[in-house]
Write a structure and sequence with these properties.
Blueprint lengths: L2 E5 L6 E6 L3 H18 L4 H17 L1 H12 L3 H25 L19 E9 L2 E5 L5 H14 L3 E5 L5 H13 L7 E3 L4 H10 L3 E7 L2 H13 L3 E5 L4 E5 L5 H13 L9 E7 L3 H13 L19 H16 L3 E4 L14 E4 L7 H4 L6 E7 L2 H8 L4 E2 L1 E5 L3 H10 L4 E4 L15 E2 L3 E2 L4 H7 L1 E9 L1
Parallel strand pairs: 4-5, 4-7, 5-6, 7-8, 9-10, 9-15, 10-13, 12-13, 15-16
Antiparallel strand pairs: 1-2, 3-19, 8-18, 11-12, 14-17
Helix pairs in contact: 1-7, 2-4, 2-6, 3-4, 3-6, 4-5, 4-15, 5-15, 9-10
Length: 469
């Protein structure tokens, strides 16, 4: 039997060896989830909500253990892991609280329409019904909160779910699934399969018993999942990546902007889809802003993620460290000047130094065009508002963006011109409201957006009940 080795990215120690699910086991899990759906979909909403509240309480009670586990397998600093757990509990609670409003249905006034004839004698009720079994794929960067998004709103709506966690961070998903079982969810409602992404998703997409797919991960893989799911008539929700820009104008509070940008770039070693990944600064304040960014980057404490004082831990794997090395080397070749960092740290673990690269202008280089999932921040000057917008829009991504200025008319003009799902003014690109739809445009916007409310809507279907009275 093939086994999955889970490694602590900060120490390179083996945390666990898990058996990977075979094709037969994946099929059996699908059967179990489908059988459970037939009963769970008929369970009253008040019962589903009470079980979710109980799960939230148990997650809070297990907070210390879950945080330690999350830190060990992801390398996320403990202070950030504690925030993620708080967020996770909030997502589960919101799913219980929002369900009664999202799923309440409606009574359309069909007597307002002339056709079909006789509408004055009809009463129509629209209700939302669950779609069935939903397969969910997690990324490694937020293993607890992503699990909550893949599970809580989906089962609140009456579906059952099969989660495939990242091979780097499966332990958090397994522990959370156990907590949902302890909360009283029936067997088969919440399922976790550990295994090859290709094996798991081939079975989920091919099975007629699976109605939908919810995927968080790279845009490239998300496109493949979407194409396969669409080809088999399944619903799909894809949460892909981004290359979020920040534009800093000359009238901005530079100190506050620098602090926000550095935090937004280097939190979780830069491994967030909505991290600030590119910065464009008005030339008149460029030197001052770059100096502030470098100073605040230098002040970051990089090291043991279990130390409460640590600001940045390791990358998830040696492969990702090598990806950063390659990206920075290519940036240097294209004229980028490394102002701080620029290499692997000489210690155990997959640590790469927080890095700032200055460019004299727009350059066709990986760090300014693609999604860099690590602690590398390119900074580029601009002269005019239109140029700043063009720079911000110069990638295939359009997830989120930030604009720093005291001129709110300019802020609105620029926000309207930037192609992104959300634009923050004097705030971090990391801002996300979990109950609301989250996603972007271009290659950051594939199908429906994820969020507690929107997920419940997407994985239910409207059904009309018509009475002639």
């Amino acid at each position: 039997m093939t086994r999955l080795v889970v490694v602590n990215p900060a120490t390179e120690e083996v945390l666990a060896e898990l058996p990977q699910s075979t094709v037969e086991e994946i099929k059996a899990t699908i059967d179990k989830a489908y059988d459970a759906f037939l009963k769970w979909s008929e369970t009253p909403l008040k019962t589903r909500a009470k079980l979710l509240i109980k799960a939230a309480e148990l997650l809070e009670a297990a907070g210390g253990e879950l945080v330690k586990n999350l830190v060990a397998e992801s390398g996320k600093p403990v202070k950030d892991a504690e925030v993620e757990l708080m967020r996770t509990v909030s997502i589960v609670r919101a799913s219980a609280e929002e369900a009664r409003f999202v799923l309440q249905g409606s009574v359309p006034r069909v007597d307002a329409y002339e056709y079909p004839l006789g509408n004055e004698e009809r009463v129509v009720v629209e209700l939302r019904e669950p779609v069935g079994v939903v397969g969910g794929a997690q990324s490694y960067n937020n293993p607890a909160s992503t699990f909550a998004h893949k599970v809580a709103p989906v089962i609140a709506a009456g579906n059952t779910v099969i989660v495939k966690p990242s091979s780097y961070t499966p332990l958090t998903a397994l522990k959370m699934a156990e907590i949902f079982r302890k909360a009283g969810f029936p067997d088969g409602v919440v399922n976790v399969v550990v295994g090859s992404g290709e094996d798991v998703f081939n079975e989920l997409i091919d099975s007629p018993k699976v109605a939908g797919i919810s995927f968080t991960g790279s845009t490239a893989v998300g496109l493949q999942v979407a194409a396969k799911a669409a080809g088999r008539g399944k619903k799909f929700m894809i949460a892909p990546g981004g290359s979020d820009p920040a534009i800093v104008f000359e009238d901005a509070d530079l100190e506050a902007a620098a602090a926000t940008i550095v935090r937004a770039r280097f939190e979780n070693a830069g491994q967030n889809c909505n991290a600030t990944k590119r910065v464009f600064v008005h030339r008149s304040v460029y030197d001052k802003m770059v100096k502030l960014i470098v100073e605040k980057t230098a002040a970051l404490k990089v090291g043991n993620p279990m130390d409460p004082a640590t600001d940045m831990g390791p990358l998830i794997s040696d492969k990702m460290v090598k990806t950063m090395e390659k990206a920075v080397a290519e940036a240097r070749e294209k004229g980028g000047k490394v102002l701080i960092g620029g290499g692997r740290l000489g210690r155990w673990g997959f640590f790469y130094a927080p890095t700032v690269v200055a460019f004299d202008g727009d350059v066709e280089t990986f760090v300014l065009r693609e999604e860099v999932f690590g602690p590398v921040l390119p900074v580029v000057p601009f002269d005019a508002e239109e140029e700043a917008v063009a720079l911000a829009n110069a990638t295939k991504y359009g997830l989120q963006a930030a604009v720093y200025t005291r001129d709110y008319r300019r802020a609105m003009r620029v926000a309207r011109a930037i192609k992104a799902g959300s634009v923050m003014v004097n705030d971090s690109t990391r801002v996300r409201f979990d109950a609301l739809p989250y996603g972007g445009v271009k290659m950051s916007g594939l199908a429906w957006r994820e969020g507690v409310r929107s997920t419940m809507l997407y994985f239910t279907e409207p059904k009309f009940y018509v009475w002639r009275v």
